[in-house]
Structure formats: structure tokens, C-alpha cells
């Protein structure tokens, strides 16, 4: 009997398939409309504006696009192979090899992005991530992340390898945003203009760096 992958398999899997993932990643930038939407609500607390990309992967195409638009990008990924490729792709940006769970970089950012990464965590780890989001949020910071459409676990693939996904109920995501001082701006379930991704965009309205 073949066992399905679990959240603990995610980082070793992405480390193992990093080169294949880089070669196969869709670079059409279908994410552009939502990235532009995030940029439109990202404050100018400092120049350049600072982005925290959680689960940054190889940096292509999303972090590259945002860096080209003047953001100072800090990419964080727990898979060493992904961080190495990110550093090669964006040598002028900051690459951090770290697990996003419990992350504390002792700095805040004008935008926080977890695109197709946060949903690889277990439900409990996803709940805990909202404290990580808040800890790294500068005044009025934008937060954008992708999820599933309903509570549950599913399995997909990345570069031919099986990978775990989970999601909370949308009502719980809304509650977690409120509890951690984020105001929901936009929620797009299975957005047809973004290849069916379910996207959340919020703004931080709490005190800077509050933990």
C-alpha cells in the first residue's frame, strides 16, 4: 500500500525536484492582475517598498516581476534547492533558507505574499501562520495568499512528485484575518482570470510588528 505524502514531506520533496520545478514552472505570468492589485494597496512606508515572499520557490516569475517593479524582495523557503535557485535568479535580492512556520526575521515588510505555498501546511500550521504574518507586517501592509475553496485535504503534484495541500473553511480564514488585525480587501474563489486560484488580499490595520 502506497502512503500519501504529508505536510512533513513538502520541503524534502521541493528540495529534490527544485531543478525540474524551475524548468517546468509556467512563466506566462497569469498571476499579474492579482500581483498588480497587491501592488496597488502596498504602502510606501520606506523606499524601496519591501516584500516578504513566503515559500518563494525559484523566484521566477513572481518575485522577478515584483523586483522589476521596484520592490526589495526577501524570499524565504524551507527547501534549500529552491533558495539556491532564487539566489541565482535574483542575485540582488535577499534569499533566506528557513521554514516559514514560526519565522521571525525581526523586521517588517510593506507586502507579504504566500502564493501557492501556505496551502502546503497542515491546518494547525496555517492557523499559526497568521501570527507570522502579523509579526512581519509594517503599517498598512498588504497580505496576499492562496488557499483551497473549502476545508479539507487534497493531493496534487509538483514536477511529477506528489504534494500535500490543505485548506480551512473560508469563514475561518476571515476570522483569522480579523483576529490578527487584517482587513479583508478581496477574496476570489477559483478566479477564472487567474487559472482558478483562490486568492485572498488583505491590509494590516494593527500596530507595526505586533506579536
Describe this structure in words.
The longest helix has 13 residues. The mean pLDDT is 95. This protein has a single domain, classed as Vaccinia Virus protein VP39 (Rossmann fold, 3-Layer(aba) Sandwich). It has seven helices and nine strands; from the N terminus they run αααβαβαββαβββαββ. It is α/β, with parallel strands linked by helices and 211 residues long. A seven-stranded mixed β-sheet has the order 3-2-1-4-5-9-8, sandwiched between helices. Strand 1, helix 4 and strand 2 form a beta-alpha-beta unit.
C-alpha geometry: globular
**Rg, nearest Å:** 16 Å
Order of helices and strands: HHHEHEHEEHEEEHEE
The assigned CATH architecture is 3-Layer(aba) Sandwich
Supply the CATH class.
Alpha Beta
What's the helical proportion of residues?
A: 25-40%
Q: What strand order characterises the main sheet?
A: 3-2-1-4-5-9-8
CATH topology: Rossmann fold
Mean pLDDT, to the nearest integer, reads: 95
What is the number of beta strands? Answer: 9
Q: How many distinct domains?
A: 1
Query: What about the largest sheet?
Result: 7 strands, mixed
Query: What count of helical segments does DSSP give?
Result: 7
Strand content: 25-35%
N-to-C CA distance: 44 Å
Low-pLDDT runs: none
CATH H-level superfamily title:
Vaccinia Virus protein VP39
What is the SS-derived class? alpha/beta
GO molecular function, one term: methyltransferase activity
Keywords: Methyltransferase, Transferase
InterPro entries: Methyltransf_25, SAM-dependent_MTases_sf
Protein name: SAM-dependent methyltransferase
Amino acid at each position: 500500500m502506497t502512503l500519501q505524502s504529508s505536510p512533513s514531506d513538502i520541503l524534502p520533496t521541493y528540495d529534490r525536484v527544485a531543478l525540474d520545478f524551475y524548468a517546468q514552472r509556467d512563466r506566462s505570468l497569469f498571476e499579474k492582475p492579482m500581483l498588480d492589485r497587491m501592488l496597488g494597496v502596498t504602502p510606501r512606508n520606506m523606499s524601496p517598498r519591501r516584500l516578504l515572499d513566503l515559500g518563494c520557490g525559484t523566484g521566477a516569475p513572481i518575485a522577478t516581476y515584483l523586483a522589476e517593479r521596484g520592490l526589495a524582495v526577501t524570499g524565504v523557503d524551507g527547501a534549500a534547492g529552491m533558495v539556491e535557485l532564487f539566489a541565482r535568479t535574483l542575485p540582488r535580492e535577499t534569499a533566506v533558507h528557513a521554514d516559514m512556520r514560526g519565522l521571525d526575521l525581526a523586521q517588517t515588510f510593506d507586502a507579504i505574499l504566500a502564493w501557492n505555498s501556505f496551502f502546503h501546511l497542515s491546518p494547525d500550521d496555517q492557523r499559526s501562520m497568521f501570527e507570522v504574518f502579523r509579526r512581519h507586517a509594517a503599517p498598512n501592509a498588504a497580505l496576499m495568499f492562496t488557499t483551497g475553496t473549502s476545508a479539507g485535504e487534497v493531493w496534487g503534484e509538483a514536477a511529477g512528485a506528489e504534494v500535500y495541500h490543505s485548506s480551512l473553511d473560508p469563514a475561518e480564514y476571515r476570522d483569522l484575518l480579523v483576529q490578527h488585525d487584517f482587513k479583508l480587501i478581496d477574496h476570489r474563489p477559483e478566479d477564472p482570470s487567474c487559472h482558478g486560484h483562490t486568492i485572498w488580499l488583505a491590509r494590516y490595520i494593527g500596530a507595526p510588528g505586533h506579536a
